[in-house]
From TrEMBL:
This is Short-chain fatty acyl-CoA regulator family protein. InterPro entries: Cro/C1-type_HTH, HTH_RamB, IrrE_HExxH, Lambda_DNA-bd_dom_sf, ScfR_C, TransReg_Diox_bact_type. Belongs to the short-chain fatty acyl-CoA assimilation regulator (ScfR) family. PROSITE patterns: HTH_CROC1. Residues 13-67 form the HTH cro/C1-type domain. PANTHER family: HTH-TYPE TRANSCRIPTIONAL REGULATOR, HTH-TYPE TRANSCRIPTIONAL REGULATOR SUTR. Keywords: DNA-binding, Transcription, Transcription regulation.
Amino acid sequence: MAETRPLYLGPRLRRLRRELGLTQQAMAGDLEISPSYVALLERNQRPVTADLLLRLARSYGLDITDLASEDGADYARRIEDVLRDPIFADIDLPSLEVADLAMSFPGVSEALLRLHGAYTREQQALAEQRFAGSDAEETDPVSEAQRFLAARHNHFPDLDARAEELAAEIAAEGGSRPWLAKKGVRVRFVPPDVLVDSVRRFDRHNQQLLIADTLDAASRHYQLAAHIAYTAMRSAIAQAARAGTFASRTAETLVRRALAGYGAAALIMPYARFARAVGERHYDIEALSRLFGASFEQVAHRLTTLHRPGEEGVPFFFIRIDEAGNVSKRLDGAGFPFAAHGGGCPLWSVHQAFRRPGEIITQWLELPDGQRFFSIARTVCAGGGSHDRPRVLRAVALACGAREAGRLVYAQGVDPAQAVATRVGVTCRLCNRPECTARSAPPIGREIVSDEYRRTVQPFAFADS
């Protein structure tokens, strides 16, 4: 016969009592036990009996199955995650001790979790203050626009729905140009000098849409879609933008531009058809680019928007950087902690993509807290089109959780648990890995030792490691 294990619910019981606004004495009165017994239960020094479970459920209108699920394993897992921080790398922490801490000392466990959470938040705040004033992040229009998109996971259902309607109309007319012609708009592809440093201009007086003839096919397609988004989707874009409150006109303009870009991409890659193709092609970005007549970057960007209930895609983090490491676009849908200010980790392949232009580079990543991600990076080129037109080379990257990577053609057949991962950090100032030879600065809060008598392989040796 299976042995029944005692049930300890200390942290959960204490959390329940605080949520209900009760003292230990008041809860004791409700449960008809002594206050000292409540204290022992909350410290996991006494197990919860079946009779007490029933009393808890009856007194506070709770589901007994929720109450009966154990907290100890969850606490142990969370503490193990915290103790994987490289700041503890030189301390022997057997799993048995961690489990014993979580079960026998729930108060200490909770204190440790709170302390590490506060430590992590303060590190992030200090790093941001180092690169910007304390109020700069709040008032920066770019950051404000990014927060608007991030709060909505870069998904705007109304824009997608309107774009699907328009895409069906456009397809029925035989394409964007015939559809615009039916609306009385003539499309002309003209030399760049006619446009005076523009790639697209709408001549409202003559009802002409002028587009630079030096653009490649995908860019022409996108500029046509952008004009349609700005005109035929104007009310939907305005409604989406009204959901935010902006500190400056610039922030609102950036948001409207992002929403128009979203609408243009949704016209070229209508949600349902695109999501179906993504599943069939296993996220093969090059294949999807050819299927929809879009660029690599446009497809990668569109992949971050697939959050429609019932038709969700893999959650992705997207970033675009230049060779100096400047971030010109960032969208987070995968919980990937990229530094808000300063350089990212140089060990991430997005920074090395410039050495192998046009080639897709894949990489497994492991963060200091043990989280694992899978990354796809490639260079993309903007501009050009003629001998004297400047070109800009950038790198774009998509990253998703390791558990989702098997859905991608780039990682099929690879067991994420067995994959060799590159150990990266958010940024040097927030990374406590002592063995990193690529480090450019010591982490915040760590003292470094003098190197008068010894020079380590790593740029810095920490006094407490």
